[in-house]
Amino acid sequence: MHHFENILVEKRAEDKIAIVTVNRPPMNPLNSKTLDELHEAFSELALDPDVRCIVLTGAGEKAFVAGADIKEMVNFGPIEAMEFVEKGQKLMDLIESIDAPVICAVNGYALGGGTELALACDFIYASKNAKFGQPEINLGILPGFGGTQRLPRKIGENAAKEWILTGDILDAEEAHRVGLVNKVIDGDVLEAAVETAKKIASKGWATVKWGKRLAHITFDSPLYVGLMAEREIFAYLCATEDQKEGMKAFLEKRKPEFKHQKK
Questions:
Q1: Which residue is catalytic, options 5, 44, 116, 195?
Q2: Which of 57, 144, 157, 170 has the smallest CB count inside 10 Å?
Q3: Active-site residue, 257 included
């Protein structure tokens, strides 16, 4: 993976995880170049057999991502605006669709595009000083990187409409209360996310990959379709060595040694 200007990518081969950091402190705003670099990094990590879980965070204490880069957006006409939000949406779709789960470690402000970037991840850990919100309405626009669609899916329609229509900034506890954030961490949020990433990466690869996919199917399909997919994947997993090992280890009261078949 080549050198990026606006992000950092660290691979920890021994733990089978990667850490991606948006590196434009103090506020880490998302401009076109940063979106492109994130897209490239996640595309490469998606193909890396040694990466089974990814942590996404921001550099410094002040912000995860305080939003899209207003300096770049201020002179946009409709054409540039369309290209910019398409770029953002494609990145969010990519993060959501890759096999490796992505845990977001939010250290400080995650506003606008920052909340939207966190929404595309599989789940979110937040530091006590984290702040979330979709303040776009205060700038005369609305969320454009998926916020109007993913936020209602994650926190429910009523709460999402309140966030989007007031532009209010919410603290970590409130984000936790509505179910956007899994855990509020008193201490090092990145460390907590890395520990969970290591735990996930130690499981059998097929189970992790399909666990993520099955959870996504539920939002796009009627229940019976999701249940049919669940039956098929359950049956398929019983053809893997990892399932034989997992069950044998359980009965023998020992820790399983998964082979992580990539099938």
A1: 116
A2: 157
A3: no
